[in-house]
Specification:
The chain is mostly helical. The chain has two helices and no strands.
């Protein structure tokens, strides 16, 4: 799913996910979330997006050096 997105779309999605995680953390600090596992899921989504971005950077760098 992430592989189908363009670089710009990945960056936008990363920003949205990070904002959502921040809001969840604030809400959780004020009053506990009904399902705190949402925080873990949001963090993992951010990590997946960062991984895809990094993989693209590495592949483009290796293709330039060849």
């Amino acid at each position: 799913m992430l592989k189908d997105l363009s670089d710009k779309e990945l960056q936008e999605r990363l920003e949205v996910e990070q904002m959502q995680l921040t809001k969840l953390k604030i809400n959780h600090a004020v009053s506990p979330l009904e399902n705190p596992n949402v925080l873990n899921t949001a963090r993992k989504n951010i990590a997946r997006i960062n991984t895809e971005i990094r993989m693209r950077q590495i592949s483009s760098a290796s293709s330039k050096s060849e």
